[in-house]
Amino acid sequence: MMDGKIIIQKHINQKYTIIFDQNTGFFVRKEDKDTEEPFWSEDGPELLDVSITNYCERECLFCYRHSNRQEGNMSLTDFQNIIEQSESIGVLQIALGGGNPNQHPQFIDFLKLVRTHNIIPSYTTNGDGLSHEILTATSDYCGAMALSYYPSTNNDYIKLLKRINEYHIKTNIHLILKSDTIDFATNWLITPPEFFKYINAIIFLNYKPINANVNYSIHDKSKLERFFNAASECKHVKIGFDSCCVSGIAQWMNTYPFFVESCEASRFSAFISEKMRMYPCSFMVNTSAFGDLKKQSIIEIWKNNIAFGKHRDAILNNPCKMCKSNCLCNGGCLFLPEINFCRDK
Fold first, then answer.
1. Which candidate, 186, 177, 176, 178, places its Cα nearest to that of 216?
2. Could you read off the pLDDT of 100-147 as tens digits, one per residue?
3. Which of 113, 161, 197, 198 is the most exposed place for a label (fewest CB within 10 A)?
4. Where are the beta strands (DSSP E) in 274-343?
5. Residue 308 confidence (pLDDT) above 50
6. What's the pTM value of the predicted model, to 2 decimals?
7. In this structure, what are the phi and psi dihedrals at residue 203, rounded to the nearest 5 degrees?
8. Is the C-alpha dihedral spanning 194, 195, 200, 204 positive or negative?
9. In the chain, pLDDT over 70 holds for what percent of residues?
10. Which of 237, 267, 231 lies closest to 251, judged by CA?
11. 298: part of which helix (H) or strand (E)?
12. So what's the pLDDT on residue 327?
């Protein structure tokens, strides 16, 4: 099993401290006395989202990456370069993605490599290819794994979660909030399904209409309000959201501001594609907003790349300053403002 420890990082120039428990995932960013909370980490990202393959057998119509059976893999050599740099600048977590990352032929080697460099790996899977070897390695090296939920498939999630549970793996369910999932997501929170007892938490992800053949955006505000109200009242399971849902959280949920984090892209996190391109976030992958890791280092791109600077400026100078929710959501998504769950949109 993973023998994690508590990491304490002091960012002297910006006068704040990070505390991260590798075993539990507990994380806190604490500014020094009489110092403002940092807007971004000048020393480098705390978390990297790394796509090690864009291969996926499902080829879902709503996939923003257009993952498919023909896409290629990141090499172990390139990945090692990323991990060695990550360790040197204090990256705490590496989230492996794709595609379906555990179907990369060297996936177990990737997990071992991350742990060797004192960084905690995690990954999101569609559930395919979860062999005994993969699950054993997951238990040994990962902080957690996430299982994507596909309402349109006939997967037996209870059977799969029971199997994963036998390996003592902390497992979260990821569900994309779309026009065809919002109702049963709400019903889950009111009347929990049986599989909830096998998971650590359910994480809701905002739908992004990128590359999609069908637009599943949610336009019914009454359904959104009902969903977020149900999330506020739910006691059956731990609930999390990606930061792209922050505008809905700010408007419709009763939660402590301490637990709400707006977009961290280019501020505390970044995305690296299987082609060794580094972006502020994964949704920019089909744009020119990247730095080339074959030519520059992670920290050089982080500090000096124009796209990263522009994204920070966009968040800092967002157009929602007059909104009472701005202190929580910082304008929501500045790259895709159409996905923000604002009442007046």
1. 178
2. 999 999 999 999 999 999 999 999 999 999 999 999 999 999 999 999
3. 197
4. 277-279, 291-292
5. yes
6. 0.94
7. -115, 125
8. negative
9. 96
10. 231
11. helix 298-304
12. 85
Q: Please state the rounded mean pLDDT for residues 60-67.
A: 82
CB atoms within 10 A of CB 261: 17
* pLDDT tens sequence across 21-39: 998 889 999 999 999 999 9
Q: In the beta sheet, which residues pair with residue 270?
A: 48
Token digits of residue 303? 């500090």
Distance CA 261, CA 258 (A): 8
Q: What does the alpha-carbon distance between residue 228 and residue 107 come to, in Å, rounded to a whole number? A: 36
CA-based nearest residue to 273, from 121, 70, 71, 122:
71
Rounded mean pLDDT of 295-300? Answer: 98
Structure tokens at 276: 């060794």
* Bridge partners, 121 (sequence order): 94
Instruction: For residue 170, give the 3-state DSSP assignment.
Output: coil
Q: Kindly give, in sequence order, each residue whose CB lies less than 8 Å from that of residue 315, ignoring residues fewer than 6 positions away.
A: 262, 263, 266, 267, 330, 331, 334
- Please answer whether residues 122 and 91 qualify as being in contact, where contact means their C-beta atoms are separated by less than 8 angstroms: no
Collapsing DSSP to helix, strand or coil, 31 comes out as strand
Position 1 scores a pLDDT of 38
Residue 276's nearest CA partner among 38, 68, 64, 85 is 85
Buried b (16+ CB within 10 A) or exposed e, 27-46: eebeeeeeeeebebbebbbb
Other CB atoms within a 10 A radius of the CB of residue 236 amount to 15
The CA angle 195-197-201, to the nearest 5 degrees, is 90
What average pLDDT does range 159-172 have in this prediction?
A: 96
DSSP-assigned states of every residue in 66-96:
--BTT--B--HHHHHHHHHHHHHHT--EEEE
DSSP secondary structure code for residue 243 in this structure = G
Given its phi and psi angles, is residue 78 left (phi above 0), alpha (psi -120 to 50 degrees) or beta?
A: alpha
